[in-house]
Amino acid sequence: MSLDGLIVINKPAGITSHDVVEKVRAILKIKKVGHVGTLDPDATGVLVLLVGKATKIARFLQNDDKEYKAKMILGLKTDTQDLSGKVISKTECDISEEDVRCALAHFKGNISQTPPMVSAVKINGKPLYKLAREGKEVFRPPRDINIHSIDFLSMPKGLNPEVTFKVVCSKGTYIRTLCSDIGDFLGCGACLESLVRTRSGDYCLGASFSIEEVNELCKSYLFENFLISIQNALKKFPIFIIKETSVKDVLNGCFLTDKMVDGKPKETKEEQYVMLLNAEGGLLAISELINPQNGSLLAKPICVFPGEVAV
């Protein structure tokens, strides 16, 4: 049986995203397993895995927005911007809830963020975290990100208050850096204490599985209980039914034309991705429309799926 699709894992703390991939590879006994959106070892929550032929669709999911529940400690600064690092300074702070709410609001929208030295961003071909291990700190070009929403949840009173908040953000956002920047804005410093990813794109924590649950379901061959099909993962894409006489051309990576299509949506937009299915509903390929005007159709192939792909 060919296993192709997505698995939404509830990543535990203490292991890397790559560790999760390796564990699932061993459980499924399949080499082709990847993930979308790395989580730090101490972070928990939604980690989307791609299995089998689904590894080809990473590009369509990697830009999805993410949602997190984060807790930061005010008045504490570390060299990693979280509790795993060396303490740089610790000061008691008199910060009100209203001050925190105003600070959070300040970071909503399009902002610039400098990647932390412990990130996997490469400078001159070398990951920053490797440079950090060597005790080096280098210039990191700021990146534009978008904080779609950031909501205050709680803040128990204390000399170093712990602030819990929820944030929905674009790809490439570092929550530890967001906490550090909020702390600097408040004038007291801050670092990330804990982080849970509650959503990645369409996939929420409530619909995720632990590694142990996946293992047990595999023992009973209940793959359909946790495996999301490629078609379901890309259900937002319009569907084109390919004529039987053109299936081979599609699988050979030919450009799509009107003559090859048996059925298509009434409205399509240029530069829109579409799924190409055979008459039985099997996924053949994903293409990008480049000239749908005037009733004509032209699409370039992005990736093809030779063999049977589950509906």
Features:
alpha+beta; Pseudouridine synthase; Archaeosine Trna-guanine Transglycosylase, Chain: A, domain 4; 3 domains; six-stranded mixed beta sheet; 20% helix; 34% strand
Care to describe what's here?
- The chain has 311 residues and is α+β, with helices and mostly antiparallel strands.
- It folds into 3 domains: 5-64 and 202-231, Pseudouridine synthase, CATH 3.30.2350; 74-188, Pseudouridine synthase (2-Layer Sandwich), CATH 3.30.2350.10; 237-304, Roll (Archaeosine Trna-guanine Transglycosylase, Chain: A, domain 4).
- 20% of the residues lie in helices and 34% in strands.
- The protein has helices spanning 17-28, 58-61, 97-106, 128-133, 175-186, 211-219, 230-233, 247-251, and strands at 5-11, 33-36, 44-51, 66-74, 76-78, 87-90, 109-113, 122-123, 126-127, 143-154, 162-169, 190-200, 203-204, 239-242, 256-257, 261-263, 273-277, 283-289, 298-304.
- β12 and β13 form a beta hairpin.
- The longest helix has 12 residues, at 17-28.
- It is elongated, with a radius of gyration of 23 Å.
- The mean pLDDT is 91.
Summarize the structure.
The protein has 8 helices and 19 strands. With 311 residues, it is an alpha+beta fold.
Name the poorly predicted regions.
Answer: none
The CATH topology annotation of the largest domain reads as: Pseudouridine synthase
Major β-sheet annotation: 9 strands, mixed
The assembly state of the depicted protein chains is single chain
Amino-to-carboxy terminus distance: 14 Å
Radius of gyration: 23 Å
- Structural category: alpha+beta
Query: Total number of helical segments?
Result: 8
Provide the number of structural domains: 3
Overall pLDDT level: 91
Helical content, roughly? 10-25%
CATH superfamily of the largest domain: Pseudouridine synthase
Elements, N to C (H/E): EHEEHEEEHEEEHEEHEEHHEHEEEEE
Based on the coordinates given, report the CATH architecture of the largest domain. 2-Layer Sandwich
CATH class of the largest domain: Alpha Beta
Estimate the global geometry from the Cα principal axes.
Answer: elongated
β-sheet strand percentage: 25-35%
Tally the beta strands.
19
